[in-house]
Amino acid sequence: MNGTAFGAIGILNATAGGIGCSLAIQPKFHATWRWGTGPENLVDRKVSDAVAKTMQPGTAYSAVVTAPFPASRGLKTSSATAAALLRAAGHPEDGLCEAAVLVCRAAGVTITGALDDQMATIFGGVQVTDNRRDLPLASWSPRHHVAVWVPTAQISKADVAKIDNKSIRKAAESLGARLLRDQHALPQVLTQAGKLYYRLYAEAGLPVTDAPVRLALDHGAEGAGISGTGPAVAALFSRRVDLPEVPGGTWHWTEVQPDVRSH
Description:
- The structure is a single chain.
- By secondary structure, the chain is an alpha+beta fold.
- It has 2 domains: about 1-140, Ribosomal Protein S5, domain 2 (2-Layer Sandwich); about 145-260, Alpha-Beta Plaits.
- It is built from 9 helices and 9 strands.
- A hairpin with a 4-residue loop joins strand 4 and strand 5 (about 135-140).
C-alpha cells in the first residue's frame, strides 16, 4: 500500500489570528504500510500511530515515510505524513482532508487543526482557511520559485503552545483579511507575518533567526519569512538566484505545486 502528499510552506501562521494560509510545493512525501513489524523511517511516529488506529485492528503494521524535509521545522511534515499514510491505507479521497485533520489532532501535533496545511498537502496551491471553524476560505495557484531554508534547529508544538500571542492577534487577523482581499499580496503577507512571529518567538527564546529572511530579500525575493511555527524560512522569487549559505541551515529550491482541482 502506497500513498503520497505534497510538501508545503506556511505563509500565515494561524495560531494568533485563526486565519491560516499555506502554499504547496513540489517535493512529495511517500508513505507505505507493510505487514508485520520492521524498521521505520518516520517523520512523525505520533501521526503514524494515530493513522494505524483507524485501520483494521488485530494486525501489526509497519509504516515507512520518505520525506523531503525533517520534522518540527514548520514545513507541514505532520500534515503531509497524515495524508500520505491515509492514502496508503486506502482511505477514499472524499473526506481525506477531514480525516487527516482529525489524525493530527489525535496525535497532538497541531495547535489549530491546521486545515490550511492539510488542504495544501492534499490539493496543492494556496489554501486560506479559518482554522477556528474548520472552514476553507480561498484557494488559488500562484507562480513562484520557492527557496526554503531548512535549519538544523527545531521547534516543538508544545513550546509554541506555551507562548501568549495576544500581542500580535489583531495584526495577524489583519493579514488574513488582506489575503482574502488581494491574492497578489501573498509575498507581502509572508514577510509581514514572518516579522510578527519572529519577534514573538525570539522574545520567548525559541531558536529562530531572521538572517535567511534578510538575505533572501536582499537578493530579490518578493517575500520571505518564517514558515509556519518555524524555525524554517521560506522565500518567494520570480526566478532562481544564487543564495549564499546561512549558518545553521541549508537552502533548497523548489516551485509551487498548483492546485490539482484546477486542472
